[in-house]
Design a protein that fits this description.
Blueprint: H1 3-7, H2 13-37, H3 49-64, H4 68-87, H5 94-108, H6 119-143, H7 160-184, H8 196-226, H9 231-249, H10 256-272, H11 277-299, H12 311-314
Helix pairs in contact: 3-4, 3-5, 3-9, 4-5, 5-6, 5-8, 6-8, 7-11, 8-9, 8-11, 9-10
């Protein structure tokens, strides 16, 4: 031992133990913090489904029955219930995620969802539906400091099964949607198209709303619910909101027989495709092209040659 080493103070066993304990505590803190910060479906108590179901039910009341006050009461009860289950240790951050969804539902409910191809109508839809996307993103990223909402456009190469499903979608849409729109008469829920400009705006609008559907119902509502519940529960909850919105938009009569399985399948393939947003948007917009054509044919019967099998239904 040199003279300098002899004069340097040596750490005692107590100091070394304290240092080790501090290091261990520091190492454990992030893990513990992360565990408490991030929801885990396995840790969510079944009772926590109740407040989430109330939020979904509020959409039925707001958009299906057009009852604002009861709808807001149910929506508020759902958010409050989520906060209570969090405090009771039955869920983690469920109240926060339900609040983000509720904010969007409230904004959407402020306007009538009836299609309007005027420039004013296009502007109104753009602002309201845009806010419904922006608000929960801002809430989760700036207030919650989380990146729980994402829009994963980049996906892997589509499999043969995915391409096969796309082909099935095209055929099914062509056979089923004209029969629905023309046979039930629900095409009348969309406005008459007076000129080429209105037809063009209508085409853009139908596809824009289709894109918005996937951004909101799948990437926001479904994704947030998946943080707390098993796949089938989250899917049923998002589909309830999705179908309620489509009902007010015009998909009425026996439309839910189509929109319910469609909403459920969209959630399922989003999950199975490893959250490939491009794929689910492609599927949705293929449907929407046929939706657009069916409504145009309904308003212009001379174009029925586009759907010869549906000609007897148009009368």
């Amino acid at each position: 031992m040199t003279a300098s080493e002899a004069t340097e103070p040596q750490p005692s066993e107590a100091d070394a133990g304290a240092s080790a304990a501090t290091s261990a505590s520091a190492a454990e803190t992030p893990a513990e913090s992360g565990a408490s910060a991030h929801p885990d479906p396995a840790a969510t108590h079944p009772l926590a489904i109740v407040p989430a179901a109330l939020v979904s039910l509020s959409a039925v009341v707001l958009f299906g029955f057009l009852e604002s006050i009861p709808g807001y009461v149910i929506l508020l009860a759902g958010v409050a219930g989520g906060i209570l289950t969090d405090r009771a240790g039955l869920s983690r951050r469920l109240g926060a995620d339900l609040a983000a969804i509720a904010a969007s539902l409230t904004v959407i409910s402020l306007v009538e969802l009836k299609a309007d191809v005027s420039w004013a109508g296009v502007a109104r839809f753009t602002v309201i539906l845009g806010l419904a996307i922006v608000i929960p993103v801002v809430i989760t990223r700036l207030i919650y400091k989380e990146r729980s909402i994402a829009f994963p456009w980049r996906g892997g190469r589509w499999t043969r099964a995915q391409w096969t499903y796309v082909a099935v979608v095209i055929v099914a849409a062509y056979l089923i949607l004209p029969a629905y729109f023309l046979g039930s008469g629900v095409y009348l829920n969309w406005p008459e198209l007076a000129d080429g400009g209105e037809v063009a705006r209508f085409f853009v609008g139908v596809n824009a709303v289709g894109l918005w559907d996937e951004l909101f119902f799948i990437c926001i509502v479904f994704t947030l619910l998946l943080r707390h519940f098993p796949l089938w529960v989250a899917n049923v909850l998002q589909a309830t909101i999705f179908v309620s919105f489509l009902w007010e938009l015009g998909y009425q009569s026996w439309g839910p027989l189509l929109t319910i399985p469609f909403a459920l399948i969209q959630g399922l393939i989003f999950n199975l495709s490893k959250r490939n947003l491009l794929y689910v948007v492609t599927v949705h917009l293929l449907f929407d092209v046929v939706v657009f054509l069916a409504i145009v044919v309904g308003r212009n019967p001379d174009l029925i040659w586009l759907f010869p099998l549906a000609a007897p239904l148009l009368g």
